[in-house]
């Protein structure tokens, strides 16, 4: 059987976060990028 819906959703979210982080780090630099910036760009909420 394939991955569950939850596992696919988690993988898509992880990919969106990594893509957003990569783009923001390239644009702004590591030191000028916050977790909140990455979460906003990936359209998800940061963990608390």
Strand-and-helix sequence, N→C? HH
Termini gap: 33 Å
Mean pLDDT value: 93
- Total number of β-strand segments? 0
Number of helices: 2
Q: What would the keywords be for this entry?
A:
single chain, 48 residues, mainly alpha, 2 helices, elongated
Give a short synopsis of this structure.
The protein is built from two helices and no strands. It has helices at residues 5-28, 35-41.
Model description:
This protein is an all-alpha fold and 48 residues long. The protein has one domain (5-42). 65% of the residues lie in helices and 0% in strands. The protein has two helices and no strands. It is elongated, with a radius of gyration of 13 Å.
Topology:
Blueprint: H1 5-28, H2 35-41
Helix pairs in contact: 1-2
